[in-house]
Amino acid sequence: MSGELRYVYAVTAPLAGPLPAQLRGVGGAAPYTVEHAGLVAVTGVVPEADFAEEPLRAHLEDLRWLEETARAHQGVVDALTALTCPLPLRLATVYLDDDGVRRALEEGREEFAATLERLEGRVEWGVKVYAQRRAPEPAAAGAAPSSGRDFLRRRKQEVTARENALEEAEELGRTLHAALAAQAEDVRVHPAQNPQLSQAPGQNLLNAAYLVPRERSEEFVERVEQLGGHDPAVRVELTGPWAPYSFASGQAGAEANVEGRHDGAVR
Question: Which residue windows are coiled coil (predicted)?
């Protein structure tokens, strides 16, 4: 295979200016824009040898390749977020040529336009709350149990401490989520992260995304910091601002209207 395909990162409204000259995407290629029906697809050229159906399926099993591609994809979307409110597409959304990209814009233009209008001027913030195990008391961590009864007493204290820490983290998570949801225009609560996959320490109790007007982001961040607390048994993680990935489909279903998604199909 020696041909080239078109990789689409996101759909946006018409941009006020050109893409940053130094911006590079997947494979180190500079993204460019394909315009149609009042919409813009931010696109890059990628080799067919990597992104045609069969090689792409193989690549998606390669964690190193997948991570590099995801980083490049995210870098382009992040750059767009500084310019406008992009509608991010799934990783490895590919088409045969620019005409295929235009056909996708034509077929999905009503829902793309409706979603972009709904998300205009908004960004996504992510908040996670973790319960973390408290460090044992110095006395308990030092001397060995003097008897079986002492061992059982210590075990009971450890279990009680873990339960208390979990209850505190759950209560903080509920309080924080309620306050942030009241400030956000929309909310998505995702499943708790699997610690074996995420490698994040602690038990994930809240994993939520909040759609916030860009001009109210500072107020949102201050609220997280205010309510996050300083309890060593609870960790609050704030990420963003991101392009509104969690809200890009929703009722508009924008991603469902794009052919050639990361299942390897190319149109």
Answer: 149-182
